[in-house]
């Protein structure tokens, strides 16, 4: 055996060298392959993480865009309601100085109704009670103007006659007679109709007043005094407007 090894030592050494080389190559390839798999796995995990982050960023951006769109829509709707309300109230105020135009008032009223409906559709439910109160106070102003604007214009005419050089005596008597009748009518005193007749006669002594003006001045005496009543309605409406504005600012996140 020893002799055989000595005789073939060169061949055996060569074989061992080849085997060692092959084993080293295989081991290196195996290690390299495992390293490649680890790198591939790491690359896959990194890609999945990046994709998830990108998807989350897209979702967040989409959510922000949707929230901004809702906020813009609500802002526009509330602004339209406030503008429509102010235009309607300004038109009502003009009726105390000059006759109103029915077509114009109808258009403004329809614009107000439309603006209110839009807010009710897109605004949070927490704002709806304030919007309802605003609509109520606006309607009260409209009803008040319908009932009292014409008589106020007639009273203004009566009061300005003195500045035009008209004898003040019948003017003064007419104003006093109207106020006396108003007090009696509101208190429902027994002689209210007698005072009505006296006021009617006092108005006839002012020929500059038309018959229509005389009638509406007498009818107006069945209502409470004009100025405090109008001031109350305006105050209630102003408060309702401020309430809508304050709540809208809170909802839209624009409070200081």
Write a brief structural summary:
This protein is mainly α and 256 residues long. Helix content is 85%, strand content 0%. Helix 2 (9-94) packs antiparallel against helix 3.
How many DSSP E strands? 0
Low-confidence stretches: none
Shape annotation: rod-shaped
Reported for the largest beta sheet, the result is:
none
Number of helices: 8
- What integer value in Å does the Rg equal? 45 Å
Helix-strand makeup class? mainly alpha
The SSE string, one letter per element, is HHHHHHHH
Percent of residues in beta strands: under 5%
Separation, N- and C-terminal Cα atoms:
103 Å
Mean pLDDT: 84
Residues in helices, as a percent range: over 70%
Give an overview in words.
85% of the residues lie in helices and 0% in strands. The chain is an all-alpha fold and 256 residues long. Helix 2 (9-94) packs antiparallel against helix 3 (102-122), helix 2 runs antiparallel to helix 8 and helix 4 (128-161) runs antiparallel to helix 8. The model has no long low-confidence stretch (mean pLDDT 84).
Spell out the key features of this protein:
256 residues; mainly alpha; 0% strand
Structural topology:
Blueprint (H helix, E strand, L loop, with lengths): L1 H6 L1 H86 L7 H21 L5 H34 L6 H20 L4 H13 L6 H10 L5 H27 L4
Helix pairs in contact: 2-3, 2-4, 2-8, 4-7, 4-8, 5-6, 6-7
């Amino acid at each position: 055996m020893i002799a055989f090894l000595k005789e073939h030592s060169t061949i055996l050494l060569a074989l061992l060298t080849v085997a060692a080389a092959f084993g080293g190559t295989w081991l290196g390839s195996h290690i390299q392959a495992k390293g490649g798999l680890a790198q591939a796995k790491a690359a896959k995990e990194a890609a999945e993480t990046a994709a998830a982050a990108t998807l989350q960023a897209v979702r967040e951006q989409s959510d922000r865009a949707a929230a901004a769109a809702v906020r813009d829509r609500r802002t526009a709707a509330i602004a339209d309601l406030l503008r429509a309300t102010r235009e309607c109230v300004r038109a009502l105020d003009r009726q105390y100085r000059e006759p109103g135009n029915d077509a114009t008032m109808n258009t403004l009223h329809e614009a107000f109704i439309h603006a209110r409906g839009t807010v009710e559709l897109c605004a949070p439910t927490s704002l709806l009670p304030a919007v309802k109160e605003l609509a109520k106070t606006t309607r009260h102003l409209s009803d008040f103007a319908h009932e009292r604007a014409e008589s106020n214009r007639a009273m203004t005419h009566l009061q300005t006659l003195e500045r035009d050089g008209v004898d003040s005596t019948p003017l003064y008597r007419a104003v006093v007679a109207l106020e006396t009748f108003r007090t009696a009518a509101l208190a429902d005193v027994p002689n209210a109709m007698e005072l009505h007749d006296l006021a009617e006669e006092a108005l006839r002594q002012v020929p500059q007043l038309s018959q229509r003006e005389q009638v509406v001045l007498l009818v107006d005496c069945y209502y409470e005094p004009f100025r405090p009543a109008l001031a109350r309605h305006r105050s209630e409406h102003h408060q309702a407007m401020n309430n809508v504005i304050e709540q809208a600012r809170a909802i839209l996140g624009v409070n200081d």
